[in-house]
Amino acid sequence: MIANEVINALKSVASEERRKSNEWFFKTGKGQYGYGDQFIGVRMPELRKVAKQYHWKISFDGISTLLNSPIHEERLCGLIILVYQYPKGNQRAIYEFYSANFASINNWDLVDTTAPNIVGSYLFDKPNKTEILQNYAHSDDIWTRRIGIVSTFTFIKNNCLEPTLQISQSLLGDKQDLIHKATGWMLREVYKRDATLVKQFLKQNYAQLPRTTLRYAIERMDKQERQDCLKGIFDVPN
Asked: Contact 204/238 with Cβ under 8 angstroms?
């Protein structure tokens, strides 16, 4: 079975030192967001090599085996295989398969390295893209909500900026810091393309903005402007 070959290939490049580092970095301690996640210690470059080696010959069934694994790197490898498969065709099926496996996409790196390439790419030219992403953003699951905002990175890269602002608006009241960070990150990416648009958004929503979101969003500004924004002073009209 190809999935077993992938698993063995990952084990062959794993290290105990990296395993300990990953467990600390992805917060697997009791009470932390990654509690219960298991690592074997594979670096991303090696993981991508394995995914690239096997992506052309593994089926959805084999990828399902990887996605249902308790091992973080096996799930990540399965998702990156989907990213490599996506440009080659069968895109609707890959999007639907990915969407059906949200439960396995349960850490921030799993979301960030794959959602824009699959969810964002598939929905970009769909008329109901914002409605679908809004559904994700209103999910009870933190990782589905993160998929909702991070997927808009693809839209931003194509100068389609409004969906990011709409999803960001929906997430202003979110209680999770990892959502605050992701929202601020996407607003910062919009800022690179239209600074005024983001400043207006921040000004209009200043009272509701989580501090982390605001700090991430204004990172590209100069020091004085950042200090002004933190005080709620914005050099743009409403």
From this structure: yes
